[in-house]
Amino acid sequence: GAVFGGEHSAHYYFRDNWRADSGLIAALVVLERMAVSGQPLSELRIPFERFTASGEINSRVDDPLATIAEVRSEVTGRYAHATTDELDGLTVDLGDWWFNLRASNTEPLLRLNLEAADPDSCSARVEELLKLIRG
To answer: What pLDDT digit, counting tens, does each position of 28-70 carry?
Structure first.
């Protein structure tokens, strides 16, 4: 029932467009918002950037599912307060930062997306996880 959904890989889905993927509709919505507000995109996006995002970081590993299991075990052992979800790979929420680690459906890769409160925290957490993922 969501009105809108999207992915970092530029796929955008709209309920009122039969949930079809449409980058064109997304672009038109953004252009309309810019025209109505008179603001550049750089200003319009500020309220939506509550966290610093790593962007998608890809890693080649021999066994993606085993690596995800190892990361889950290590992270939940280190951070007792972590909540996890396995709907799409492994999502771990640690309050002031979170990450999703999932196997690519099209390439032999693990994809990491992470958000944290600020750039320094984001970089530190990415480094921590990449050490676990890449060994």
So the answer is: 999 999 999 999 999 999 998 889 999 999 999 999 999 999 9
Q: Three-state DSSP class for 55?
A: coil
In the chain the beta strands, taken as DSSP E runs, fall at 4-6, 12-14, 52-53, 57-59, 83-85, 90-93, 97-103, 110-116
pTM beyond 0.70, yes or no: yes
Helix axes 119-134, 64-78, angle to 10 degrees: 130
Question: How many other C-beta atoms can be found within 10 angstroms of the C-beta atom of residue 99?
Answer: 23
DSSP string, 61-90: -S-HHHHHHHHHHHHHHH-TT-EEE-SSSE
- Residue 110's SS3 state is strand
